[in-house]
Amino acid sequence: MNHYNLDKNKVVVGMSGGVDSTVAAYQLKAMGYEVIGVNMRLWQDDFLSESHFMNDGGCCSLSSVEDARRVCMQIGIPFYALDFKTVFKETVVDYFIDEYKHGRTPNPCIACNKYVKFDALLEKAHQLGAYYVATGHYAKIYHDDLTDRYLVEQSNAILKDQTYAIYNLTQDQLKHILMPLGEFESKEAVRQIASRFDVQISEKSDSQEICFIPDQDYVGFLKRNSDIEDKQGNFIDSEGNVLGTHLGIVNFTVGQRKGLGVTFGKPMYVVAIDADQNQVVLGEGDAVFSDHLIADKVNFILFDQLEGPYACEAKIRYSAKPAKCTLYPLPNNEVKVVFDMPQRAITPGQAVVFYEGKKLVGGGTIK
Amino acid sequence: MKKRIFLDYAATTPVRAEVADVIIGAYRDIETVWHEIQVAKTKIATLMGCDDNDICITNCGSESNNVLIKTIVRSLPQDKNHIITSEIEHPSVLNVFKQLERDGFKVSYLKVDANGVINLDAFYRCVNEKTGFVSTMFYNNEIGTRQPIEIMGSYLRARQIFFHVDGVQAVYNESFKVSELPIDAMSFSAHKLYGPKGMGGLYVAPKAESIKRDLIACLPYSTRSKAFVFSENTPYLIGFGSACALAFEDRETHIKHLRTLKQYLIQAIENLNADIQINAMNSDNHPGIVNFMLPKMDADSAMINLDMMGFAVSTGSACSSGAISASHVLMAIGLKEKEAKRCLRISLGHFTTEEDIDEFISALRVLV
Q1: How far apart are alpha carbons A213 and B302 in whole angstroms?
Q2: Which of A134, A208, A293, B112 has the fewest beta carbons closer than 10 A?
Q3: Considering A60, A109, A112, A312, which one is annotated as catalytic?
Q4: Do A39 and B321 touch (CB under 8 A)?
């Protein structure tokens, strides 16, 4: 990273024009920071921008630039739109496509946070002399004097907590990030502040879907933007017996029951996806439960490295409840996670994120 | 608040005070006389160096490009479906050619060398018996490169191929008489020569009579009927004329002023010793455009920093959101995407002073 003169009182805020980023920017200004609003141009799907011209179109639409520009004017901070399309394509969209190719279920928000918001945008912030980047994420970041580490804690508004999506940030990244919404007790409290500004609260969906696929048709997206095609293959059971024909592995995710395209007279679930053989393994209800998993590309926040067995809790998807487990270190930056109770639909490609109470311990990618 | 320093004249120029007065006067006087419109057109034609009848009025330079290209290609015979442009054109030319390519035309995009100049050998090889139309720019708006339009035009004239030149950055910044150039049409724009926005023009050579008839039929401000003039933006047309008259008067000193300042700026950049690389350094470049690559900072960050310090500069390639993407022009002269994203365009104008440049250089010193 280049070394610029950084001002600790200066912060670049990623602005979507929505409620959360608007309030984040407003709070920081009220706290006395010099705030610069930036709208990140990430992706433009020509197919969607033509056919859904009048749509809200997710956070990459042109209307979001105008929304962000307007609220920045109302808050009284400068505003700029910046182009991040290349880095977004290379680190988020290509990864997203590649994961589906390999039968895994990606989490693009986590990649975007690590490589775009808190790397590429942070670099721009530094070029503007700002020490910090801030976003409207619901999470708390603070410096712990005892361990001299930057730690992450779940937000006070626990239902909105987004720590799951930032488990893989490094200490050097966390040092330069502000997330003022972590202190809010509820989304309602945030909305209340947002109502002072001309924010289109009702129309913006809570952006938990994939921002670059505003119509949520990810299969259509994959077909338009990659060489992935629907290639028929076999449904098999765990013994390898052929149960039927599927219409392409991208249509499936582990744990899925609906939309298999075939009926079996009893509820059947996707247990695994074998991209090499173009096969989808099905099983009955209990087959989708497992009490352990292996995670790779592990990152720890609470400490540098896992030295031995470690009891904590883990979430295997964004919306999951933390479940009691024990972590066991493995070579090559991997861990084995053994749950006290079997978990449903442990999905390769998704993140497993570890907690100790409200504290974020770390996480990894499910293998 | 500190005075802002405008160094983005290639994007647009401020309206001269005299021109603004003329426009306001014309707005107050509802019954604009027919005579004044004729006078305005004469003033425009005088600056261009052609006959009044060879000027069509449009709403901007982009419209001039669009409407001219589309009118020409419609008139081409079936066996002349090959058309040529360069890869560093303004979007209002390049995107029209891309559309025509989708419509079935065979399109050649001429490559440019590391200084942005069309390779003439490649151009000669490209022209064939099916070629019906060629369009290129006079001065490039981002790097200021001048294309060899005289050589290209003579070559095309000998083969009776229609040649259009996008002269938006050229008029007032170079002394020429368009009627003496071997070209068939030229686009230009009022707001690049200190006239109002929302006014453009097209020169069409006298011999292209049928093309001119087609254009007049579809463009505003035509002289077909006096009844039209009251519904059109005649005050702006009169302002356009006034800007052209002023430009015609002081063109030589204006160009000299720009050249002196440009030399001063380049010298100052070099004196910074900051590893700044100036792009496309040709002796016949636009007298007021300097494009250079910063050693490490991205151009958008530099633009924001400069904006906050009170300077308006540009990269020449913003998308509709205002975000800066890598310029197709800079990629065409061989820069990598990362390098292209570190390039700034400074464009000097009539009201720029050496003090402006000194202040800009002090600001730039902080960034590099």
Answers
A1: 32
A2: A208
A3: A112
A4: yes
The residue-averaged pLDDT of B219-224 equals: 70
Chain-centroid distance of CA B92 in Å reads: 11
What is the spatial distance between Cα B137 and Cα B88, in angstroms, rounded to a whole number?
A: 9
Amino acid found at B17: A
Three-state SS for chain A is CCCCCCEEEEEEEECCCCHHHHHHHHHHHHCCCEEEEEEEECCCCHHHHHHCCCCCCHHHCHHHHHHHHHHHHHHCCCEEEEECHHHHHHHHHHHHHHHHHCCCCCCHHHHHHHHHHHHHHHHHHHHCCEEEEECCCCEEEEEECCCCEEEEEECCCHHHCCHHHHCCCCHHHHCCEECHHHHCCCHHHHHHHHCCCCCCCCCCCCCCCCCCCCCCCHHHHHHHHCCCCCCCEEEECCCCCEEEEECCHHHCCCCCCCCCCCCCCCCCEEEEEECCCCEEEEECHHHHEEEEEEEEEEEECCCCCCCCCEEEEEECCCCCCCEEEEEEEECCCEEEEEEEEEEECCCCCCEEEEEECCEEEEEEEEC
CA distance A194 to chain B (A): 24
Range of the domain at B189: 17-245
- Report yes or no: B247 and B49 within 8 Å, Cβ to Cβ: no
Residue of A nearest to B326 (CA): A83
- Structural domains of chain B, count: 2
| Last residue of one domain, picked from the residues B245, B276, B303 | B245
pLDDT score, position B228: 52
A229-273 confidence digits (pLDDT tens): 888 999 999 899 999 999 899 889 999 988 888 888 888 999 999
Q: Is B301 on the interface with A (CB under 8 A)?
A: yes
- Cβ contact (<8 Å) for B322 and A129? no
Give how far A64 is from chain B: nearest CA, Å.
10
Q: Is the pLDDT of residue B1 over 60?
A: no
| Mutation for testing the B interface, residue in A83, A86, A88 having most B CBs under 10 Å | A83
Q: Which two tokens stand for residue B305?
A: 């920093």
Q: Which of B328, B300, B326 is nearest to B314 (CA)?
A: B300
Report ipTM (2 d.p.). 0.82
- What topology is assigned to A230-283 in CATH? SH3 type barrels. (2.30.30)
Question: pLDDT value at position A260?
Answer: 86
Q: For the residues A114-141, what does the mean pLDDT come to?
A: 97
Q: Which residues of chain A does CATH 2.30.30.280 include?
A: 230-283
**Which CATH number does the domain housing residue B256 bear?**
3.90.1150.10
Same domain, B152 and B291: no
The C-alpha atoms of residue B309 and residue B291 are separated, in whole angstroms, by 20
* pLDDT(B229) > 60: no
Cross-chain Cβ contact A127/B320 below 8 Å = no
Chain B residues whose beta carbon lies within 8 Å of the beta carbon of residue A85:
325
> Which residues of B are the active-site residues?
319
pLDDT digits (tens, 9 = 90+) for A316-357: 999 899 999 999 999 999 999 999 999 999 999 999 999 999
